[in-house]
Amino acid sequence: MLNDRELIDSTLRGNIHAFRMLVDRYQDLAYTLALRIVKSAEEAEEVAQDAFIKVHDHLINFRGDSKFTTWLYRIVYTTALNRLRKRKLTQVSLDDPTASYGNIASDSSADQPTDKISMLKSAIAAMSSDDSTVLSLFYFDEMNLQDISQIMDIEANNVKIKLHRARLRLKTILESKPGFKKEDWL
Amino acid sequence: MNTETEKKLWQLAAGELSDLQEQELQEMLAADPDLREKFQLVLNLHKSLYHSVEEPAPVGFTDRTITKLETKLSARQVSILKKFAPGKKIIYIVAACFLVLVIISGLFGSGESSPLPSWIDPANLVPEVNLPLENFTLPLIGLSAVFLLLIIQKLFDLRQLKNAGDMLK
Asked: Whose CB among A34, A58, A116, B150 lies 3.0–4.6 Å from A47's, allowing a Cys bridge?
């Protein structure tokens, strides 16, 4: 299997199939990150697609100083934030806990997942963009704090704080869900 | 349980504590069953998160992305081509040059000298002077052909651009 660098070089030589392989390889990561920020499946797909097109357009500028995934996530992250700005949703602070908790009520009333994974997914979806982004980057791709700080353009120490807050909020959200049973998690 | 302790529970689950901090917390856990229960909850949450944060991209995502990319690339190529597309004025100028050259070639290229009347002594004739235009007949025809090819090519380019534009609509 070709590695990222080989696929990038091949894409730069005009091989669209090489780029297709890159998209195929990282589509879930890009889509997940976009979804965590824009909170809408349709928009998340558009954001992820636009991000991949930007990646293709600027691939020549990728020097390989950082991991390809870090560079890709940074583009997905900024594209998604720009989309949010366009929607004027940033009027609500991303760190505002009431924003995330405000979603829980509507979410929990809509459907009440019973299995643990569905419950967690539902809780993550109810979190603010910032919180769910940090969690997704940390747990999905197992990125280190330094990588996450590059993607979100914040200090590594702030990432650590955000990650900690996000974990606590997640637990609070989860425990407040109607279907939550503590014994299931012990 | 205060926030600081809960933070440490998460850090212990993620293996982010130093040896000393871990030892301290393990002692607290050994002494406090409630804290142990809370740690178990945090540990399970931590493990489950690795399987919960991923949202698979919709089916056909790659195909749709590549199609979108190819459409954008084509649109970009057409806009570049349009920048350098031949204007209609150029085609008219080239066509006009072609017509002028054809007319000149027709006027001067086909003239043949008629036979001399018998009463004229050829020796008395002034030596024939070749008109320069007659000498250029062949090059003029060649040049006309080049202009004709240019017109055809320009028209072909315009048609290709129109087709490409129609395809993108």
From this structure: A34
Specify whether the CB–CB gap between A73 and A33 falls below 8 A: yes
Query: Which of A50, A74, A89 is the last residue before a domain boundary?
Result: A89
Residue-wise pLDDT for A164-186, tens only, equals 899 989 988 888 888 777 777 77
Encoded tokens for A79: 């594209």
CB contact under 8 A, A48 and B44: no
Rounded CA-CA distance A136/A131 in Å is 9
State the pTM of this model: 0.67
User: Are residues A79 and A131 located together in one domain of the fold?
Assistant: no
ipTM of the predicted structure?
0.76
Instruction: Give yes or no: residues A97 and A176 share one domain.
Output: yes
Give me A108's structure tokens. Answer: 């929990």
CA distances from A4 to A29, A53, A55, A93 (A): 15, 17, 13, 36
CATH number of the domain where residue A161 is located: 1.10.10.10
A82/A102 same-domain check: no
Cross-chain CB nearest to A140 (options B40, B53, B64):
B53
In this structure, the answer to whether residues A157 and A109 fall within a common structural domain is yes
Q: Which of A69, A89, A109 is the last residue of a domain?
A: A89
Which chain B residue shows the shortest CA-CA distance from A32?
B55
Contact flag A167-B10 (C-beta cutoff 8 Å):
yes
Query: Chain A window 97-116: which residues touch B at a Cβ cutoff of 8 Å?
Result: 116
Interval B68-97: pLDDT, tens: 999 988 887 777 766 666 666 777 777 777
Residues A110 and A158 in one domain: yes
**Position of tokens 């050259």?**
B101
